[in-house]
Amino acid sequence: MQPPRQDTGTPATRFSAEHSAEVVTSSFAGTPDPRLREIMTSAVRHLHAFVKDVEPTVEEWATAIGFLTDVGATCTPVRQEFILLSDILGVSMLVETLNNPAGHATESTVEGPFHMVDSPPRPLGADIALDGKGDRCLVTGTVKDADGTPVPGAVVDVWQANADGFYDVQQPELQPERNLRGLFTADDQGRFWFRSIVPRYYPIPTDGPVGRLLNATARHPNRPAHIHFDVRATGFRPLVTHLFVADTPYIDSDAVFGVKDSLVREFSTVDDPARAADAGLPSPFRTVHFDVVLRPEEQQ
Ligand code: BEZ
Ligand code: FE
């Protein structure tokens, strides 16, 4: 058996703990797709460095494999436990943020698993709170480009949890279908507005392996209250983001690290019967304004 040839400058070919990463990365040297080669080389380097750092016992490694097996087994067509794992490790937000660097546009955040049904098209001003529960709220905003020019006809898709912290799809027996969802088309000045309720914070699903990991690491599962937005217009990059309620619990400890300061707004209280009548809401009501700035399609 040849000793590893590292001292001659030639990569080692025989496996050893010392040269494990080099031995394995060299096995990918002939990968035809250069991007796949780059990804596999980096993944192996980091994974081997992690194992050398932690030095897991054989039992611990079997536990890790068992955990990932459970994560896979928990996935169904409507439940994606691997994305949830990526979310609670902050990897979803890192990928999102690296691909949508902060600039002049509205910042993005994770889409989450509850955009699983199409939002119904609704006229501007519609009330999306079909169950009538919770603090009534008027949401207004304008879709603009980076120069502040309105984007007429932008399509604004919104979805949110109810006053108990559940999406309609989590409570099909209790909530009306498509409760707290709406697809709005901005007017000729890029404006949108709709009536809703102030959402509540809620826990991400904890009945699977990701929940057990949160529990074992003494982390809470909660997300601060938010309204999801998916905004699209011809010539612009689609934007997936949230509007966060400033005074919600967990604003500084989101279980999936989704909060960006630029997305947090006060939902102020309006105690004025005339304005309430204008808005079609009882007095007092809450209101929030959220302008959305889109990035041109070609801009990275
Ligand atoms: C959500 O905001 O709907 C969400 C995001 C990530 C994980 C779970 C839920
Ligand atoms: Fe959500």
What is the structure about, briefly put?
With 300 residues, this protein is of the alpha/beta class. Helices cover 26% and strands 19% of the residues.
Compile the SSE list and pairings.
Layout: H1 20-27, H2 34-54, H3 58-74, H4 81-88, H5 91-99, E1 136-144, E2 155-160, E3 181-185, E4 191-197, E5 202-203, H6 209-216, E6 222-223, E7 226-232, E8 239-245, E9 264-265, E10 268-270, H7 273-279, E11 285-289, E12 292-293
Parallel strand pairs: 1-11, 1-12, 8-9
Antiparallel strand pairs: 1-4, 2-3, 2-7, 5-6, 7-8, 10-11
Helix pairs in contact: 1-2
The chain binds benzoic acid and fe (iii) ion (FE).
Low-pLDDT sequence parts = 3-8
As a whole number of angstroms, the C-alpha radius of gyration is 24 Å
Q: How many DSSP E strands?
A: 12
Q: What's the N-to-C terminus distance?
A: 51 Å
Q: What is the highest CATH level, the class?
A: Mainly Beta
Instruction: Write the CATH homologous superfamily.
Output: Aromatic compound dioxygenase
Biggest sheet statistics: 5 strands, mixed
Name the shape in a single word. elongated
Helix content: 25-40%
- The CATH topology is Protocatechuate 3,4-Dioxygenase, subunit A
Number of domains: 1
Query: Any guess at the CATH architecture?
Result: Sandwich
User: How much β-strand is present in the residues?
Assistant: 15-25%
Hetero groups in this structure are:
benzoic acid, fe (iii) ion
Would you tell me the overall average pLDDT?
94
Q: Counting H and I runs of at least 4 residues, what is the number of helices? A: 7
